[in-house]
Specification:
alpha+beta, 3 strands, binds zinc ion, about 150 residues
Length: about 150
Amino acid sequence: MSKIDKYLSDFDDYELAFFAKYKLDTYLKNSQEKIKKILFKRGLTEYRIEKLIEENPKSKLIDEKERCPRCYSDKIRRDKVKYTNESSGGSFGILIKAYNSNNEKVTYKNEVICNVCGFWLKDPNNEKPKMNITRLMSTFLTKIRGIK
Ligand SMILES: [Zn+2]
């Protein structure tokens, strides 16, 4: 079983649908082919993917878990990152910077990203890749329709 097989075997159909819609395009061509085979095996056609996303029963769940606001999965990844985004903090940011350089203290913050759809819940350093959604969507639709 390849790494991606293993990773995706953990996802339910709804999570897989969100993954296909939002993350497939971020993988290299080779991996995309592997992922598409998995989608095919699990019967996730373009139509089914849209349906699953529409129906997502997790959106009605109320529990204590932290969930992704887009796909409602609780497969959330948390990384402690060195806080480097001081410039956007205004005068407070400058204060932190001055304090840090005087005391050699490093601030750590949580970077929180959804493992299923790639949604950034917390982005302390503004590292979220900026992308053109329209372009991305049209590339994706072209790909899954098999039009080159
Ligand atoms: Zn998500």
